[in-house]
Specification:
The chain is an alpha/beta fold and about 325 residues long. About 50% of the residues lie in helices and about 10% in strands.
């Protein structure tokens, strides 16, 4: 099999930001799966993970009623676990933002995130994508999750990628931006690191980079999460600008969430163990976190259906 070399522009970017030791990354993340977290530390980690969830519904059959249920669960994940924190945000399509805002009110600690820019493909004219961002913000979105132009990136048209992200930053106003790289379509760790740097150079401190839309066959893994964590660390050391990370898609169990948090702590430290800098885009994760917390409280597992499911996996 003949493997084509990357475009010259991509090779130059690799030279500027560095490449990834793929074997080293895989060996490191394999160690995260062997860690054993017990008792009070486990409960702390489970609650911390709950506070980082973006509770999401992104289905064509979404209704105002479903969004309302999502918001109520975001505010109180489970009635028998009153000490469990609220989730970080609810994430919906732009047309559903106003319904979420009506339930959560103007000053809710639970933020409203909305996917935009022709999610998940990003294949619409730029002015259409920007209009969607502005509409979502106008309807009450606190955060915008955008997708980058993967075709432009892979073709080496990096200025196009950055100009489009910059235009979305401007359209967001005060809303936080999360830039989705869609790692499965970038294919290599080197490409993921390079795209992370391109995005971080034009977003603001407090904005995020994000692994995936959750709509492809490969989403967040410990490997691509680690590549992006290390890019954030290196960018912070270089510039002093702190950027957040949101792994999305495929994180369904509490055990996985604790492994991802271990990676955050060991790579970026406690300053990133907050939902201002780290999120899980994995709605089905919430029920397993609650199930594990109930088990820690009572010593017995409840059936999965005991925990209401207000959203679909994302």
């Amino acid at each position: 099999m003949v493997v084509s070399s990357p475009p010259a522009a991509l090779r130059r970017l690799f030279d500027a930001v560095g490449t990834v030791d793929a074997v080293g990354i895989d060996e490191r993340v394999a160690k995260f799966t062997t860690r054993s977290i017990k008792k009070s530390s486990k409960v702390w980690g489970l609650k911390k993970a709950v506070s980082m969830v973006d509770l999401t519904t992104l289905e064509g059959k979404d209704t105002p009623g479903k969004v309302a249920s999502l918001c109520h669960k975001a505010l109180q994940p489970h009635t028998e676990l009153p000490d469990v924190p609220m989730v970080a945000a609810v994430c919906v399509y732009p047309s559903m933002v106003r319904f979420a805002r009506a339930v959560l009110g103007p000053d809710s600690p639970v933020r409203i995130a909305s996917v935009a820019t022709a999610f998940p493909s990003g294949q619409s004219p730029l002015r259409t994508r920007l209009a969607e961002v502005k509409a979502a913000v106008s309807a009450g979105a606190d955060e915008i999750d955008m997708v980058i132009n993967r075709g432009a990136f892979l073709a080496g048209e990096f200025q196009v990628v950055q100009d489009e992200i910059s235009a979305v930053v401007a359209a967001c106003g005060r809303a936080t931006l999360k830039v989705i790289l869609e790692v499965s379509e970038l294919e290599t760790y080197d490409n993921i690191r390079a795209a992370s740097f391109l995005a971080m150079r034009v977003i603001r401190p407090g904005d995020f980079i994000k692994t995936s839309t959750g709509k492809t066959s490969l989403n967040a893994t410990l490997g691509n999460n680690q590549v992006m964590l290390e890019a954030i660390r290196d960018f912070y050391l270089e510039t002093g600008r702190a950027v957040g990370l949101k792994p999305a898609g495929g994180i369904r169990s509490a055990k996985q969430a604790l492994q991802f948090l271990t990676a955050v702590k060991e790579t970026l430290g406690d300053a990133w163990l907050t939902n201002a800098r780290y999120r899980f885009g994995a709605s089905s994760l919430l029920n397993d976190l609650l199930r594990q917390l109930e088990k820690e409280r009572t010593g017995a597992y409840r059936a999965p259906y005991y925990f209401s499911d207000a959203s679909e996996s994302y």
